[in-house]
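Fig. S4 source data, part A: sequence.
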Amino acid sequence: MSSNNNPDWLADDSQHVWHPYSAINSGLPVFPIESADGVRLKLSDGRELIDGMASWWCAIHGYNHPVLNAAINKQLESMAHVMFGGLTHQPAVALASKLIDITPEAFQSVFFSDSGSVSVEVAMKMAIQYWHTKEQPQKQKFLTVRGGYHGDTFGAMSVCDPVTGMHSLFANSISQQFFVDVPTRGFGETCNDDDMQPMQAALEEYGNNIAAVILEPVVQGAGGMRFYSADYLNRLRELCDEHNALLIFDEIATGFGRTGKLFALEHCEITPDILCLGKSLTGGYMTLAATLTTNEVSQTISNGEPGLFMHGPTFMANPLACSVALASINLLLDSPWQENIGRIEQQLKQELQACTTLESVKEVRVLGAIGVVEMKQPVDMKTLPQQFVDEGVWVRPFGKLVYLMPPFIIQPDELSILTKAIYKVISKI
């Protein structure tokens, strides 16, 4: 047996375990975690790191939370899993009811899946089936803005940015979709006809073949951490209605409070036809996603040919995941989450401002519990993570972006350690 201070199993990791967006024997550092509690990750050598990533944005309550632990343990006593085909269970129904209660009234149908990428696949398939039933089977394509990211499965890849979306290798294999330039108006700004012209022109030219427009509302996540005008979404809704295209919002990254609203769509005045949720849905405890839609969409699909929706994941609506998701949502709603997000936002704005004085920094931007430092050049992923670990924090940049999306429970002194570490590390670049 290897000791925790010298985990020999790391050699097996480097030889056999394929980490995301990396190569076997990549040479990139990986850090062995022994446990996690609150906002701290404990390394096998005993050091603790303050987590600025919320485990890819999902652990909004931090780690080892007693309420979420209890929900998992209680559900485990009755059943860990049961197939959802032909069977049902109370955790799934209770979670669906809660999602319907906290989202706009138009959403009345919930389809569960295993991950955010799959929830996007589900949304895209819903759109295609909807128009097939409407006797418009030529509507098979999707329109979106550049700079987006929607997941790593084939359908989701097809609506990620075709140049910077990490998937250009598969260009000849995935479906070819339609793209327009990213909105130029920033968050809080209004749009005019010129701002909407690229989207309008695409819908006028290709609308007969477009099943839906899909985008991440207000915040483009892994595609570049851009914040854009909510008014763009208001006007986009009008264009979609005019050209008979459904509207899909991907809130996998922005849902459950991250932008300062419970859902990012609340920054605008309209409702999409389909909504994708994931990541922090379970508070980071288990993988689960949900695709919500209107009665118009669900009933049209159900009453058409073949009279059912053509999708069914094996682990759909897993009882453990549904139970902890319901507990996580209730925990969030019962907390002063708006106050916490507002506090985090103000502190990020104040403390990251110092980074704007650095020659290597292009821009600093903050929205809700999202703080982004955009560099002028891509960062060195072989050295920067180690430097952050040496400062006692977990920050994992990508591309030109050094960013923070911490758990909502983070305290001011803990957040200051993160922001100071970012300034210290990037000041050396």
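Fig. S4 source data, part B ends here. The chain has a mean pLDDT of 95.
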